[in-house]
What does this fold into?
Amino acid sequence: MIYIAEVDGLEFPVEILDEHHIRFGKDILEVDLAAVSGQPLYSLIVNGESFEGYVYPAEGGWQVLLLGRSYSVIIEDEREKRLRTSEAGPASPGREFTLRAPMPGLAVAVLVSEGQQVEKGQILVILESMKMQNELRAPYAGTVARLRIKAGESVQQKQILLNLAASALNIT
Amino acid sequence: MFKKILIANRGEIAVRILRACRELGIKTVAVYSEADRQALHVRYADEAYFLGPSPARESYLCGDKIIDIARKCAADAIHPGYGFLAERADFATDCKDAGLVFIGPKASSIAAMGDKAVARSTLAKARVTVVPGTEGEGPLRDDELLAFAPKIGFPLIIKAVSGGGGKGMRDVRNLEEMPDLIRSARREAESSFGDGNVYLEKMVEGARHIEFQIMADQFGNVIHLGERECSIQRRHQKLIEESPSPLLANDEALRQRMGAVAVQAARAVDYANAGTIEFLVDKDRNFYFLEMNTRLQVEHPVTETVTGMDIVAEQIRVAFGLQLSRKQEDIRWRGAAIECRINAEDPYNGFLPSSGRITLTQPPTGPGVRIDTGVYAGFDISPYYDPLISKMIVWGETRSQAVIRMRRALEEYKIVGVRTNIPFHQTMMDTYPFITGKYDTRFVEEQFSMLDAAENRELYLDIAALMATMVAHVQMEHRAQVYGQPGQESMWKWVSRRLRLNR
It folds into this structure.
């Protein structure tokens, strides 16, 4: 199986040969991966070099926390990638962002209404949790498509608070 | 000595106090909320009693219930820790009336220092320099605050009269944004302290936050245990504390002066027990009284580490009525200590709190490392209380050695299940202004960036790519599996077997 891993705009082809061998670019690496106590904490030995890192699934890919630095990695298998690049064309407009509660808490203030235009970085909702008020902001400019909470409501972690449709100008 | 002490707190500080009691041979009583049934402080104590539902208002803030429990189990004294009831003068009075010793200062000292506005005017009268603001004005309405603001000048800070821990505080750059900020500060103060009163204080720019640890007995002996530098903060929440302060390390004269003023401030309110005088020091090394915390501080281990004094044990001793175990001239400082507060906050996502179950925790050990914590693998970080997971304190013969040791310890520390600010601390330990000790209270918010600092770090793009791909591969294969169970044997063995089949 061949995968393409993209980190910081760089692409790395990774071919899994067997349990302990990986073709990485031109090299064949001897590898050993072990999950520590069944946790998303991994010990990886590559040609005798030992690394330890956290690997979490993140929006659209994976996040790797390694030696005090966080990396976003997007992984596709080769066929997927061929398929996607042959489709070509611009990304679909009307990209929608779903604001979810990052933690359980109390929505102390909802500062926008449905249909409202918002700027990038504008505060949408103030959520109180762990005795702190946290300002949840718009990741880009857009329109509040659906508002799903009211001020004063308690919310669960990952509960959808609102949907934000990106302004056409934002689409890159 | 006391026979039995009730600890009216939770988390790491409850465990810390339990440990001091154990070493003094005193029986311990824990109290707990619904969320904390399995917490360490409950399990470590000799006795434990249920308080109420998880929200602090219905449990750890119920002074009456706590006093009732203390009387029923025949405790002699109550240690309030920090936060919750620690700075409530009425609670200290109620303890006394119930025949219980409150391990802390007298109710009158708490009251004098607890209302930050009153404290500032008391000390201004005792000729201690305070940061200019609305001291001596009493409670002010919104329109009065707005009228007063231009006299103080911008930037300024709105602060809660009953404040602490950065809650109910807002930085104000101009008059236009002020009404909204007053409203949000009052709202936060009201929900945190049940008191929406606020006051104004000039923002001292380029300032360092340096505080002095005070220890006083009931015979009028007051000493200081030196300073703690607490300028590494975000939204007025301290993140890293150290002693000695890099600023005072080569200015013994200033340290002496500040220490003397700290002792004088404590005397001004007839102080007994442990307390902390907070100062701001400006660019020209002028220092101003900020506030006094009439309780044990989160960061007390930094001082314990350089002085060798057990501050909690000393608190218990002086509350019992003994004299201070040391005189000012007996206090010696050795080496350098740094504390990192490990919070359940994601530094890659605006420091948003992260709650959930800690599934694995592997704290660092080895020379010069101390961890104070209340969590363990299987513990749920709940949204009801503050996000502090643990405090990691290191000691070094020199500050440089302490920084290097902290780097090593942070690398060893593994916490899985919730996001933590460990990467923030790792980045900070590699940042030039921190390494050289040249930073102020605005550093984290105005100059620090996880990305910029990471630039200097060696990149492991290839290893990150490899690790993520291998994990993704195992998981994808695992999910796609429709036949055969890998069971307990290695997943890799199973994956490679499938690969051979597919070929």
About this structure: The domain at 344-365+374-385+395-457 of chain B is CATH 3.30.470.20 (D-amino Acid Aminotransferase; Chain A, domain 1). The first strand of chain B starts at residue 4 and ends at 7. Chain B has 18 helices and 22 strands. Residues 461-480 of chain B form the longest helix (20 residues).
